[in-house]
Write a structure and sequence with these properties.
85 residues, 26% helix, 22% strand
Length: 85
């Protein structure tokens, strides 16, 4: 099992978040989707047949939600602090 955290852009009301979670839960490979309000984000549990992050973002865009760009960690695992990762 894998988890994906999608940080949402802007304010998200509870009704919109519920609809978004429901849309994700019907996708093959999505085991669960949970909304957290502060900051607005969705935590998605995925299995091996899971959709890609881009597919999850596309489905959320259809629900009217935008996702912040993914922040990748450095290959070495270290950071100078300048980028915030």
């Amino acid at each position: 099992m894998k988890n994906e955290t999608l940080t949402l852009i802007g304010t998200v009301c509870a009704e919109t978040a519920e609809r978004a979670c429901a849309r994700l839960k019907v996708l093959p490979g999505v085991l669960d989707a949970t909304f957290f309000a502060d900051p607005a984000r969705l935590c998605v549990s995925l299995d091996d047949a899971a959709p890609s992050r881009a597919e999850l973002e596309t489905e959320l865009a259809r629900a009217g939600l935008l996702v912040e760009a993914e922040r990748r960690t450095h290959a070495s695992g270290g950071c100078c602090g300048g980028c915030g990762s």
